[in-house]
Specification:
Elements lengths: L5 H8 L11 H13 L1 E5 L13 H4 L4 H4 L13 H10 L4 E7 L16 H4 L6 H12 L2 E7 L26 H17 L6 E5 L11 H11 L4 E4 L12 E4 L21 E5 L17 H13 L2 E7 L9 H17 L7 E2 L8 E5 L3 E6 L6 E5 L4 E6 L7 E5 L2 E5 L10 E7 L2
Parallel strand pairs: 1-2, 1-8, 2-3, 3-4, 4-5, 6-7, 7-8
Antiparallel strand pairs: 9-10, 10-11, 11-16, 12-15, 13-16, 14-15
Helix pairs in contact: 5-7, 5-11, 8-9, 10-11
The structure holds ligand FHN.
Length: about 425
């Protein structure tokens, strides 16, 4: 027998190096667009809304698939009006919408051809809301992102099972690669039939972190179909190869009050924090613990001060309406944004470290001081470049300032303070 040649030996022992992802020019532009535009609407909407108990209801109430499959017959969102949703997002000052194409229950909210487990084939509604939303977003100049769950409590090939959905009654065998083919085929539909897609927001990887999710293949597929589409994955870790932005759930980057971010070191990609208005993501009829508009404006400003976007969630009703408590808060945020938007759009995190009093944001010529929790008159700011002037952003009234080495002290007038966030604009000396 001839000895194996060195080249074949090497090939056998050296694993093929993973390809390094090089984002396209259009993708880099989209990242910049994303960072400039700061504020998006998250929409958790699916067949679970029928039970009015959040998007995890199948798992929480241990509903087996056979029972859960009765829900679509009761899902008839005849009041859904894409134009109203998009206009509401715009009125709040939001520039993009991220909607659940598929959540963990596997139910597709569009006319997929890969399975009948979808809104068109299984519900009396019979229409494709994502199509209508995509069309309306295009008309109104809002970018559309899809939230897509890796995790699937319904698909028979999601095997081995992960850590959730264990009472769904899925078969004790299955071909995970076949499941991933199915998921990729669904993603291909979403990236070819719904116009320009701003991003894909994955979730559910954490259900089985040691599985081979073939992420590279899925990410390559997305980038080959739409190179500009931003890929993000809510795996609660530092970004993986092939991703374009990093998200933080119910916390600002670097914080971990909600428990999701114990392993999520901040990477170098654009950042996004997401949160809910009440406690729930999907519609929850009993959850009345609404954050105030002021709380939400604070989160938005603090996110920007941490160099991050804010993706604020609504969970529409099974009829297709966004509940009045959400509408009221979104309009109030929009009121503040209409006067203070300049302090967020097109900015990045400012020079002064975020602190309990507030944060700073900046663009090339200006620094915006967001006074959030500070009630006395003098406020000292460090790490500032040379500044020419200080004014109230909303009124243009001059603000007294006193320069120190490496910083300054502002006297913030009591009159003209905004109860949500008083913004003072400092003009940088060129
Ligand atoms: O399990 C999901 C949850 O339902 C929701 O979609 C949030 C949104 O960030 N993410 C998951 C939990 O990490």
């Amino acid at each position: 027998m001839r000895p194996p040649r060195l080249a074949s030996l090497l090939l056998a022992v050296i694993p093929l190096a993973a390809q390094t992802y090089k984002p396209s020019e259009s993708n880099l532009k989209m990242r910049q667009w994303f960072q400039d535009n700061k504020f998006g609407m998250f929409i958790h909407w699916g067949v679970y809304s029928v039970l009015g108990d959040g998007e995890w209801v199948m798992n929480q109430r241990k509903i087996p698939i056979a029972e859960y499959e009765k829900l679509p017959a009761r899902f008839n969102p005849t009041e859904f009006n894409a134009a109203e949703w998009v206009s509401l997002a715009k009125a709040a000052g939001m520039k993009y919408i991220t909607i659940t194409s598929k959540h963990h229950d596997g139910f597709a909210m569009w006319a997929t051809k890969q399975s009948k487990w979808n809104i068109v084939d299984r519900t009396p509604y019979k229409k494709d809301p994502l199509k209508m939303l995509a069309e309306e977003c295009r008309k109104q100049g809002i970018k559309l992102f899809f939230y897509h769950s890796h995790l699937d409590w319904h698909h028979p090939d999601y095997f081995p099972l992960g850590s959730t959905g264990l009472t769904a009654g899925r078969p004790p065998s299955g071909d995970f690669n076949r499941y991933l083919d199915y998921m990729d085929a669904q993603l291909k539909e979403l990236l070819t039939g719904y116009g320009e897609i701003g991003g894909v927001w994955f979730d559910g990887w954490w259900d089985k972190p040691s599985a081979n999710w073939r992420l590279e293949k899925t990410y390559n597929l997305i980038h080959s179909l739409q190179p500009a589409t931003l890929v993000g994955n809510n795996h609660h870790r530092k970004p993986f190869e092939g991703e374009d932005f990093q998200m933080f759930e119910k916390d600002l980057p670097g914080q971990n009050t909600a428990g999701f971010n114990k392993d999520s070191e901040i990477g170098k990609l654009p950042l996004e924090s997401c949160d809910t208005i009440n406690k729930a993501w999907g519609y929850n009829a009993k959850d009345k613990q609404f954050k105030s508009a002021k709380d939400l404006i604070h989160f938005l400003a603090r996110a920007a001060g941490h160099n991050s976007n804010f993706l604020l969630n609504v969970g529409p009703t099974p009829e297709g309406r966004i509940q009045p408590e959400f509408v009221e808060r979104l309009r109030a945020i929009g009121g503040w944004m209409s006067k203070n938007g300049e302090s967020l759009y097109g900015t990045r995190g400012g020079p002064t470290q975020p602190d309990s009093w507030g944060v700073t944001t900046q663009n090339s010529g200006k620094i915006f001081v967001h006074v959030l929790d500070w009630h006395s008159d003098l406020l000292a700011l460090s790490k500032l470049p040379n500044v020419k002037s200080a004014k109230m952003l909303a009124s243009g009234a001059a603000v007294e300032m006193s320069k120190l080495t490496g910083g300054l002290v502002l006297r913030i007038p009591q009159a003209g303070r905004d109860p949500n966030d008083t913004v003072i604009v400092l003009e940088k000396a060129q």
